[in-house]
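Section 3.1: Structural characterization of target chains.
Under the original work plan, the team committed to producing a structural model for every single-chain target entering the pipeline before any wet-lab resources were allocated. The record below documents one such target. The sequence was received from the expression subgroup and is listed exactly as submitted; it comprises 408 residues.
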Amino acid sequence: MTVVDFIQKVLLDYGFSESWASIVSNLAIALLILLACFLARKIVKLLLTNVIGVYVKHSKSKWDDILLEQKLFSRVANMTPAIIIHVSASAFPVLQVWIQRLAFSYIILAAILILYSLMDGFESMYRTLDVSKEKPIKGMLQVMKIILSIVGIILIISVLLDKSPLVLLSGIGVFSAVLLLIFQNSILGFVAGIQLSENNMVQVGDWIEMPKYNADGDVIDITLHTVKVQNWDKTITMIPTHTMVSDSFKNWRGMRESGGRRIKRSIFIDMNSIQFCTEEMLERYEKFNYLTEYIQEKRQEIKAYNAEIKGDPNQLVNGRRMTNIGTFRAYVQEYLGNLPTLNQDMITVVRQLAPTEHGLPIEIYCFSASTVWVEHESVQGDIFDHILAVVPQFDLQIFQSPSGKDFM
């Protein structure tokens, strides 16, 4: 005699009709099974999380901590009710087949979620390694999750329909076009992710610029579908992964790895202040740091050159003469060459550009020794603070458009 028959017999003895006795007995068994499922899940979860949790806290390994954070043991406990229902389905002969199918389907779903937790745990552990920035695996794991989900759906459908999964797979070609359409972005993202990783085009932590998507900042995550960029204003830009291959973007990683950050800025000299140097000017300039040796060498060189030139030496246009703008350029070149805040292993140039309506541009092109933005800007500011302050010492004037007091 089964438990259902026993309860039904007791109810009949108490005067219940046969139909009501059957209904009440089935409901009672269902409630008992649900109660057993609830208690079993609680007990298993308590054992797994508390007992194993104590071991995890005292363990030096990081793996078990990550698995606990990913709720792996809670998801294992979720399988308990389905197992109990599957075993107890014989209490309901009429619905036994469907109850067992549904319970087994839930077991498949729970198993997939457990595998998800294992993948997430592996990805979390992998992110603690330095290689994770160069070779992220998040996109690959997302592809594996999609494949696992498709396999799970096929298995669940095969269980519910009581058909072999091979039968379902044999007809999947009919829906291949639909599947390609549905997973188009996933396929493109997966292929792009492989190209980005293999060619080392972008890594987590890289500073990139992609004007098409108004992205200018650090890459903080690379997934199957998107590359997440935190812009300098702290906004987040999401860029489709496949566009990182099909479109152009600028990666500043090379600058960071080179150990120098470029300074490229011009000051504009009023061309009316440019002149040949007089003896009095040269004697004054010769007292400046970095110019003593330069002026002495230039004087000898020019004297030797002019000795071979025929013509009136008192005429400035005859022969060679030093100019205040040329001496200023030589000073700035030497000044930059002695700055410890610049990367002296990289190029340093002070050059004239083509004259404009704003004056004669003198461009400073060099590299700071620090690639950190704040430090770089400080170095750049110090350089131009000094240059702008010494320009009048060379009898030159900075050009700026007339404004304010210029009209008074």
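The longest helix spans residues 18-58.
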